[in-house]
């Protein structure tokens, strides 16, 4: 049976962005001061108003720094464990019974992306458990996965 709990992730994500916007000085963003000075100078010369430069840290999922850090981590794992033996593509199917059974009235799966994401994540967790803990493909030394949305 599928149990769905309302999430406040959207609010949390917005709060993190607000915090980053308000605390750029405290987050060691001074390294970008030269870039900002150059942009402001060019904008002044071309009589253009500049916006505020916000640099999210690597802890902010989806930021360029986060993706670069993940890439570097993956390359370190490849150096240590060698090239991957298995590459899987796992896609979501909006016709999964767990998704369809969660629709109310005339709702369609595309009306409820929150349910689709939750079901996908639960099935992904089960797949990783089968591969890593139960060893359906053999012993797992290391694994990396990426979710594209």
Walk me through this protein's architecture.
The chain starts with 8 loop residues before the first helix and ends in a 17-residue tail after the last helix. Mean pLDDT is 82; it is low at 1-10. The protein is built from five helices and no strands. The radius of gyration is 22 Å and the shape is flat. The protein has 149 residues and is mainly alpha-helical. 46% of the residues lie in helices and 0% in strands. It has one domain.
Brief summary of the model shown:
The protein has one domain. Helix content is 46%, strand content 0%.
Q: Find the structural class using helix and strand composition.
A: mainly alpha
- Fraction of residues in helices? 40-55%
What is the tally of helical segments? 5
Mean pLDDT: 82
Radius of gyration: 22 Å
Largest sheet: none
Pfam families: Helitron_like_N
Domain Helitron helicase-like: 11-149
InterPro entries: Helitron_helicase-like
Protein name: Helitron helicase-like domain-containing protein
List the helices and strands and how they pair.
Blueprint: H1 9-22, H2 33-45, H3 64-81, H4 97-100, H5 113-132
Domain Helitron helicase-like: 11-149
Organism: Araneus ventricosus (Orbweaver spider)
InterPro entries: Helitron_helicase-like
List the defining traits of the structure above.
149 residues, mainly alpha, flat, disordered N terminus
């Amino acid at each position: 049976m599928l149990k769905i709990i309302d999430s406040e992730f959207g609010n949390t994500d917005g709060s993190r962005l607000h915090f980053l916007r308000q605390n750029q000085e405290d987050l060691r963003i001074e390294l970008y001061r030269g870039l900002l000075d150059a942009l402001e100078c060019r904008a002044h010369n071309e009589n253009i108003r500049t916006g505020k430069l916000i640099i999210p840290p690597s802890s902010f999922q989806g930021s360029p720094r986060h993706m670069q850090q993940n890439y570097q981590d993956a390359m370190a794992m490849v150096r240590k464990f060698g090239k991957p033996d298995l590459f899987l593509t796992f896609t979501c199917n909006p016709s999964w019974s767990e998704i369809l059974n969660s629709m109310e009235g005339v709702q369609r799966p595309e009306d409820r992306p929150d349910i689709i994401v939750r079901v996908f994540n639960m099935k992904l967790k089960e797949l990783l458990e089968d591969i890593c803990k139960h060893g359906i493909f053999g012993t797992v030394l290391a694994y990396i996965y990426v979710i594209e949305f």
